[in-house]
Design goal:
elongated; about 20% strand; six-stranded mixed sheet; Alpha-Beta Plaits; Rossmann fold; alpha/beta; four-stranded parallel sheet
């Protein structure tokens, strides 16, 4: 089993080769969650995730291999972040790399991996199917497999971030860590409890992929098909990581897709930092389970920032809808010249910004002399929306919100 000494050796080996990322408190998130929140910005690594630590620690061991093995190279399977980490550091070290990724891996992760001159193979619907392909190719081509989590050197590398957190904030009481295959939490729990035995280590999984929790509870593994947090959407945690989690992890919490969306948007708005779904899982847990962390000093690992712009755009739009800053509003107006202009003037007077207008005569159940107008509006929030509705009502317009 990986030890604190393994992690300290990894930290020495990685010195100067990975970024010592900021570890800073967030006053606003602390006010929102009721905990004292400290953020570890692993999304600021060069490849935008913590995976560089474990990948490089494993690749460093290749110096002990024969020149022929180094020339053949390595292979890895990954949903994206481990892929980039292996490809980048393999390129730095002059080692050929083959990366197998699921077919629906976010485009940004695929292109960045190719950018580091790795051979990218898109195979399978999910990580597990990609893993089968990678193992087969490893045998056929005699490549060394760099596993994304179930490897002691990988776990030791990931645990180095916990040493950095506790060096800056030794009074941390809880560490909250995203859990997929378990490499990160295994390393973090080993390091943190080795340095400070009283600290709690809490894992977070997407409710659609609760494999680690189910295995720890001795239940059959039942997972969904996809998640916004694709980096932790793993159906089969590692054998080694599972045993570490059994002994050193205090609890695993679940969060829903909506929780993860809100956490991504919250980090963008409050901290001005872009975090992928898996990276936002820790904050999602604090928001969903506030009583669990109330008044405790909590360290959150923002594990990665590789998210495609299209889903990020959708998260922003959906978040604006949830908070009432982007709304659909329908109103009944008389079907006469000038009626629509009068309605838009009322909206302007109420400081509502019109994004879209749809004027319906035929596709409505209103009386023949009436028309239905649907607006998409930008507002300042729920209070402003209520004011707009009141203003239109006072002007004699029947108004309703189709999303309510």
């Amino acid at each position: 089993m990986v030890t604190l000494e393994d992690i300290r050796r990894a930290a020495a080996a990685l010195e100067g080769q990975v970024v010592v990322t900021p570890c800073a408190p967030s006053q606003t998130l602390s006010e929102i969650t009721g905990a004292q929140v400290v953020l570890k910005f692993e999304n600021l690594q060069f490849t935008a995730s913590f995976k560089e630590r474990g990948a490089l620690n494993r690749l460093n061991s290749l110096s002990r291999l024969s020149p022929a093995q180094r020339q053949r190279g390595v292979i890895a399977m990954s949903a994206g972040n481990h892929a980039q980490a292996v490809a980048y550091h393999a390129q730095r070290l002059g080692i050929p790399a083959v990366i197998v990724m699921p077919r629906f891996t976010p485009h940004v992760k695929v292109e960045r991996t190719r950018h580091f001159n790795a051979e990218v193979i898109l195979q399978g619907e999910n990580f597990d199917e990609a893993s089968q392909c990678a193992r087969q190719l490893a045998g056929e081509r005699e490549l060394l497999l760099v596993h994304p989590y179930d490897d002691e050197e990988v776990m030791a590398g990931q645990g180095t971030l916990a040493l950095e957190m506790l060096a800056v904030h030794p009074d941390l009481e809880v560490l909250v860590v995203p859990v997929g295959g378990g490499g990160l939490i295994a390393g973090v729990a080993t390091a943190a409890k080795g340095v400070k035995p009283s600290i709690e280590v809490v894992g977070v999984q997407a409710s659609r992929f609760p494999a680690m929790l189910q295995m720890l509870q001795g239940r059959p593994v039942e997972c969904g098909q996809y998640s916004l947090a694709e980096g932790i959407a793993v159906k089969h945690p590692g054998r080694l990581t599972l045993e570490v989690a059994r002994q050193r992890v205090d609890e695993i919490l679940l969060v829903d897709e909506e929780d993860i969306e809100r956490a991504v948007l919250l980090l963008l708005e409050v901290e001005k930092t872009v975090v992928e779904g898996a990276g936002a899982a820790g904050l999602a847990a604090l928001v969903r389970h506030p009583a669990r962390f109330s008044d405790k000093k909590v360290g959150l690992v923002l594990s990665g920032g590789n998210i495609d712009l299209l889903p990020l755009s959708s998260i922003i739009q959906r978040g604006l809808v949830r908070t009432g800053r982007l709304v659909r509003l329908r109103a009944e107006v008389r079907d006469v010249p000038g009626a629509l202009a009068q309605l838009t003037q009322l909206l302007a007077g109420a400081d509502a910004n019109i994004v879209e207008v749809n004027h319906r005569r035929a596709f409505t159940s209103l009386p023949l002399q009436s028309a239905e107008v649907e607006f998409v509006l930008q507002t300042r929030g729920q209070d402003h929306l209520e004011h707009i509705v009141e203003e239109l009502g006072r002007a004699g317009h029947r108004v309703w919100l189709p999303d309510k």
